[in-house]
Amino acid sequence: MSTERIVVGLEIGTSKVCAVVASLRREGEIKILGVGQAPSRGVRKSEIVDFETASKCVREALVDAEEKSDVEIRGVFLAVSGGHIKSFNNRGIVTIPEDRGEIYEEDFEDVQAAAREVTIPPENSFLLSLVQHYYVDGQDGVLNPVGMMGRKLEADFHIIHGVSTRIKNSLRCLAELDIEVEDVVFSPVAAAQVVFDQAQKNLGGLMIDMGGGTTGYVLYADGAMKRSGCLSVGGDHITNDISLGLRIPMARAERLKVEEGSVAIHEVLPGEMILLKDETGFAGREIERAMLNNIVHCRVRETLELVRKDIGDDRLIDFLGAGVFLTGGGSLMHGMDGLVQEIFGHPVQLTHKPTVSGVTSAFDDPQLSTAIGLTKYAHATQEQKPEGWLKRLLPRIRLFGR
Amino acid sequence: MLELFRNASDPVAIRIVGVGGAGGNVVDRIQLDGLPGVETAVLNTDSQALGASVAQRKLQIGEGVTRGLGAGGDPELGYQAVEESVEEVRELLAGAGVVFLCTGLGGGTGSGAGPMVAHCAKEHGAFVVVFATLPFSFEGKRRQMQAQEALDAIRERADLVVCFENDRMGGDVGTAVQEAFAAVDRLISRSVRSVAALVRRPGLIRAGVQELRTVLRGRDARCLFGFGSATGPNRAHEALEMALKSPLMERGKVLSGTFDVLVNVSGGPDLALREVEVLMNELNRHIEDHTRVHFSLATDSALGADLEVVIIGAAGQEPVRHSSAAQTLPAVAAPAVPAREPAPHPPRNSEDALSEPMPPAQFAADEPVAPSDSAEEIRRRAREEREARLAAARNRTGGGSRKEAKQEQMQFEPLARGRFEKSEPTVVDGQDLDVPTFLRRKV
Q: Which of B423, B426, B443 lies at the smallest CB-CB distance from A49?
């Protein structure tokens, strides 16, 4: 068993809390042992607004996962998200001492520290900084500069930061359940691990994760993460829009969205109606399909346009070799691929990626991609740097003040 | 008619007078920041401080009493000094329509001379607005007491008192002393400018002196002042954020305890209604349902692409509305006051009677000053009249016929946000994304 390690990915989402228990094998294989889920309450826009209720939901999900996987959960990899999380790219430069001339591993830390010497708001803290590229004495395309001779080491970093107190809210939630948080990962980054394989990262790809409360995205180009971000608009907003637009209760609107929701406004036949049935099965009122689709379409289009605007650099989008990947509950919406293709101009893939063994049906569900991605993330971080200096490299928010 | 007054060539002549060291600093600040169309003056017993001032006019008071050495924290000395120089003070204040008096209470000159200067200004028939600061609590009980006494005296004479507590303005614990004092001056300077703008700037929706007075009523009222200004696509959101971050606002928390809040939004000609909507929706989350929002809106091409928000409220307001009105009416010498009582108008409810917007032009000096005894008489009558009207209004509402005309108060009902009603808004490019897209885009 020494070659196996159990990791748990936990996502406290707006619509559901889900915990994925997986065992990591040395051969790079991840086996999913079980998935625990619980409907989420007390979370809005991916951030906890009702602490006690949210704690309860987390407990439910963890208990569910323990039962299904027959594993006692002690520590988790936690996904965090929310509109407050921001990212940017920055380059760090260090000069190698004259008498040495060779690049050591310590220099990585220095170069990272240099890259982080930018002003982020005082209430924020770093979530992640990921190396994009190294340059040694201006030479491009260095993959691993350790042992190389050089005077100057430069590295481009993608840095993600967020408001500390808000991140700590989720951490406290787990601290109360006496569960250790091994690492905190920005949700879209985690989801990207399951969505992309290395080849796609090299080709360049954009992942859009439409969750319940937020829409996250990650853009890879040349094998490195170039952009990531999160917009506080998600499936909840669609439901809310439907509820307000058609004047039906939230719960009914949610069901209507899941069953009938579509962003395809051109497929509707004129005068097509949807019959709303009430709980007892009796016919309720009728609504126009065109109206429903219009409401949904407006919201989704706006959200995608905002994502595109957030990415900012049109060249990055133009050169996506692998195209656009859609995941999250929102990707189940009918007609999404067409709309995304229209906005981003790339072929769209909905994510069902069977690169893991075990309970594969779980992977058919894009709603789980973040939680599964966490286990892959855990795996990737383990694999790359087995000695654990990565623990120092990957900044971890020091959690509860035990 | 109000607009006619405002557009006339001679706007209300505003004179900003600083009394004592603290007042002088504020006036210097205002002078340095530049506020077009006002005259600035300082009065002080301390000739050294006076020499360093950059105000347009300077007046040394009480040369005989203090020999230019300052009042040394003794209000009695300050009072004697102003007594001695009362003629010069009168001359200095002559011809001003509105006098903004800035002073720091608790010391000698401010506490001693302040009330007298206010009195002189009132004699000239000017509308007197006093910006007073209360001392830091570490300055001792004695100074606090002196300050409170002086404040009471000033309240009797001034039309409007905007009172700041130094304790709450100085910024964080770590702030350097000099920085803390400068911050206080800046804040007061800012509020003087805002009030001046409120009085002068033509508004699309106006709130003026009367609203200010409603907001700042009450003996223990301490001003909550927030100012924010921003440019760019998200300016409404950012300006409000900044206003709420002002030191007196405590991130908007204090607003929940107020009964009246005055909000002024001003921007360049491109100010969009949507921005105002976003801003007010956001602000509404910080205030209680029962709080009345006195909203004013102005466009000023001088602002360019800036959007400015000013929030004025008071901690320690009194919930009862009409008693306070009587209280703020000056009790000692109030020649110009009765003229302000609006001419008999159709019966309205009590609130309307008080928040009737008042053109400052009405208090301008061109109005003859009534002799004070007859003024007393008129005022009494006016009060009785209003009392009767209030009673009538109460009876009417009691009788069940709720037909009274509502005054034009813009109530920004949060635009349909549904389940996101209570959550933090997501504002991107000035649009509140929680509001359904189809509503915003009017599809």
A: B423
Tally: H helices and E strands in chain B? 17, 12
Specify burial of residue A151 (Cβ count, 10 A radius: 0-12, 13-18, 19+): middle
CB neighbours of B54 closer than 8 A, spacing ≥ 6? B28, B31, B32
* Separation between Cα atoms, residue A282 and residue A30, nearest integer Å: 48
Do strands A283-288 and A273-277 pair parallel, antiparallel, or not at all (unpaired)? Answer: antiparallel
Q: How confident is the model at residue B394 (pLDDT cuts 50, 70, 90)?
A: low
Spatial contact of B240 and B226, defined as CB atoms under 8 Å apart = no
| Residue A304, min C-alpha distance to chain B (Å) | 12
B44, B20 Cβ separation under 8 angstroms: yes
The Cα B334–Cα A66 span in angstroms is 79
Is A81 in the B-facing interface, judged by CB distances under 8 Å? no
Domain-embedded: residue B6 = no
Give the nearest chain B residue to A244 (CA atoms).
B418
- Note whether A237 contacts B: Cβ–Cβ < 8 A: yes
Contact residues on chain B for A295, CB-CB shorter than 8 A = 436-438
CATH: 3.40.50.300, 3.30.420.40, 3.40.50.720, 1.10.260.40. Which one for A198-352?
3.30.420.40
Query: What ipTM describes this predicted complex?
Result: 0.76
Left if phi > 0, otherwise alpha if psi is -120 to 50, otherwise beta: which for A222? left
Residue B289: which CATH number? 3.40.50.1440
In this prediction, residues B11-17 reach a mean pLDDT of 77
The neighbouring-strand residues paired with B25 are none
- Helices and strands per DSSP (H, E), number in chain A: 12, 19
Nearest chain B CA: its distance from A300 CA (Å): 9
Read off the pLDDT band of B363 (50, 70, 90).
Answer: very low
The CATH number of domain A86-162, selected from 2.40.100.20, 3.40.50.300, 3.40.630.40, 3.30.1490.110: 3.30.1490.110
- Minimum CA–CA partner of A44 in chain B: B423
A residues 283-312 near B, CB within 8 Å? 294-295, 298-299, 301-302, 306
Asked if B438 and A231 come within 8 Å (Cβ–Cβ), the reply is no
Contacts of B240 (CB under 8 A, 6+ apart): B228, B279, B282, B283, B309
Name the closest residue on chain A to residue B436, using Cα atoms: A241
pLDDT of B68 higher than 80: no
Residue A371 touches chain B, beta carbons under 8 Å: no
pLDDT in tens, A360-371: 555 567 888 888
Cβ-contact A8, A72 below 8 angstroms: no
pLDDT band at A303 (very low <50, low <70, confident <90, very high): very high
Residue B304: how many CB atoms within 10 A of its CB?
A: 12
Amino acid letter, residue B207: A
A313 token code pair? 């650099």
Alpha carbon of A306: minimum distance to chain B alpha carbons (Å): 9
Residues in contact with B72: Cβ distance below 8 Å, sequence separation at least 6, in sequence order: B66, B108
Q: What is the pLDDT of residues B317-344, one digit of tens each?
A: 555 444 333 344 343 433 433 444 444 4
3-class DSSP string for A95-138:
ECCCCCCECCCHHHHHHHHHHCCCCCCCCEEEEEEEEEEEEECC
Residues 6+ apart with CB under 8 A from B174: none
d(CA A303, nearest CA chain B) in Å: 9
Q: How far apart are CA B411 and CA B214, in angstroms?
A: 18
| Total domain count, chain B | 3
